[in-house]
Amino acid sequence: MQKIRNIAVIAHVDHGKTTLVDGLLKQSGTFGSHEQVNERAMDSNALEKERGITILSKNTAIRYGDHKINIIDTPGHADFGGEVERVLKMVDGALLLVDAYEGVMPQTKFVVKKMLGLGIKPIVVINKIDKPSADPERVVDEVFDLFVAMDATEDQLDFPIIYAAARDGIAKLDMSEPDGDFTCMFNTILEKVPEPTGDAENPTQLQVFTLDYDNYVGKIGIARIFNGKIAKGDNVLLAKADGELVKEKISKLIGFLGLNRMEIQQAEAGDIVAIAGLETVDVGDTVCDPNNPMPLDPMHIEEPTLTVVFSVNDSPLAGTEGKHVTSNKIKERLDAEMQTNVAMRYETIGEGKFKVSGRGELQITILAENMRRENYEFGIGRPEVIVKEIEGVKCEPFEHLVIDVPEEFSGTVIERLGRRKAEMKAMVPMGEGFTRIEFEIPARGLIGFRGQFLTDTKGEGVMNHSFLEFRPYSGTVESRPYGALISMEDGVALAYSLFNLQDRGVLFVAPQAKVYKGMIIGEHSRSNDLDVNPIKGKAQSNVRSSGADEAIKLVPPREMNLERALEWIEDDELLEVTPQNIRIRKRYLDINERKRHARQ
Ligand SMILES: Nc1nc2c(ncn2[C@@H]2O[C@H](COP(=O)(O)OP(=O)(O)OP(=O)(O)O)[C@@H](O)[C@H]2O)c(=O)[nH]1
Ligand SMILES: [Mg+2]
Question: What is the pTM of this model?
Answer without folding.
Answer: 0.86
